[in-house]
Amino acid sequence: MNYLKGLKCKECGREYPADRSFICLNCFGPLEVTYHYSKIQSHLNPKIIVQREQNLWRYRELLPITKNPIAGLHSGYTPLVRTRRLADYLGVRELYLKDDSVNHPTFSYKDRVVSVALSRGAELGYSVFACASTGNLANAVASHCAGAGVPCLLFIPQDIEEAKVTGSLICKPTVVALEGNYDDANRLCAEIGDHYGWGFVNVNLRPYYTEGAKTMGYEIAEQLGWKLPDHLILPTAGGTLLPKVAKAFQEFTKLGWVQGQCRIYCAQAQGCAPVIRALHQGLDYINPEKPRTLAKSIAIGNPADGAYVLREVRQSNGWGETASDPEILEAIELLAEKEGIFTEPAGGTTLAVTIKLLRQKRINPLDTIVVAITGNGYKALDVFDSKFEVDVVLRPNLRIFREWYKGQQALPSVETTA
Ligand SMILES: *Cc1c(COP(=O)(O)O)cnc(C)c1O
Ligand SMILES: [Zn+2]
From the centroid of its chain, how far is CA 289? Predict the structure, then answer.
């Protein structure tokens, strides 16, 4: 059964077959995948989906593949965590975290998009994959390619987190570090294009790649019991995730599987917020800027799909805000202290912006709120430098420990034996 219909220009609507095309020949607009929704409707429903394996391919009819996937058999279906202590602290009733910091196997939302790009890329005959990346995407490409046994090339800016570089290198890809930032790396990849016949997951496979981001939206709706949240806060870098989660909600609504209206909010770091500035200025285009923030995984100054983020945020009656670097770090600590979840600066940005939106009273504390946690803090330890220290260093000796502990006030002190 084939549910994949074709590709369609997001700007002028011209249609193309679902092949290696990725840019409209008529207007240079980006292409988007279309599906046979009536076929999907007659063959698929929530009852069938809930019985399937807990990975992102449980929605496979709504994803752009026609054969068996080659990647992502354990990716997606990450926890939707209902917070207790964080919700109490913020004075809200129903606050969930969509926790992609534990996505398999590389601990970020990028495992979703890469699973779909590689699977479709293989169907289209690509045998080498590549990407430009701020780190998490490189990790996901390196890992999923290793698992599928296909070679890959990674183009990364020179200054990204060491953990992210090692996390890629361990899978033995070919890695090219480039002087400059992500936007420079991305420009080179666009210039290389199809010249060598490689499948650049976020360039020539982009129409398929971006579809993978829908799965976060499907899962949120399913995990809430087939309903949409009232508010969803997402981070934005290149602008893939937000419009595709919006598309996921629109598809589920059209198929009649969910009800409700979700306001979608965009979160960016103050040091790289081209989308938020355009939103606040009432523009419908993006002025690129030079990133200056510790939130490196979302430091994209010239977001490819930024204009679509603006469109979806406005259409959903949402909004967007920025968070400064200190606010981002504070939010990372808050999340860990209250829920035991350690996220990287992208997650800190999203939580910090959520707090700001609550203060602005844009979000009603009695509503259902979902915050996307898109990456893992263990990959970006350097942002805390040497801020945290152990409480004390002791020789491992009982008398010495007791001596020290007597002077401590903070912990319960119930000595069972004298
Ligand atoms: C890539 C990324 C994002 C968002 O990226 P988009 O390009 O806007 O889809 C958010 N968080 C993390 C951790 C990422 O790696
Ligand atoms: Zn077009």
Answer: 21
Q: What is the pLDDT of residues 73-96, one digit of tens each?
A: 999 999 999 999 999 999 999 999
CATH number at residue 94: 3.40.50.1100
Number of domains in the chain: 1
Radius of gyration in angstroms for the set of CA atoms belonging to the chain, rounded to a whole number: 22
CA angle 225, 60, 316 (to 5 degrees): 55
Q: Is 297 in the pocket of ligand 1 (CB under 6 A)?
A: yes
Q: Which ligand is nearest to the CA of 186?
A: 1
Shortest-distance atom of ligand 1 to CA 213? 9
pLDDT tens column, 201-227: 999 999 999 999 999 999 999 999 999
pTM for this structure?
0.96
What is the rounded distance in angstroms from the CA atom of residue 139 to the CA atom of residue 277?
A: 30
Q: How far is the CA of 74 from the centre of ligand 1 (A)?
A: 20
Q: Is the CB of 202 under 6 A from ligand 1?
A: no
- Confidence at 414, pLDDT banded by 50, 70, 90: low
> From the CB of 240, is ligand 1 less than 6 Å away?
yes
* CA 295 to mean position of chain CA atoms: 13
Among 108, 137, 141, say which to mutate for ligand 1: greatest number of ligand atoms within 8 Å of CB. Answer: 108
> Is residue 254 a part of any domain in this protein?
yes
Quick check: CB of 375 below 6 Å from ligand 1?
Answer: yes
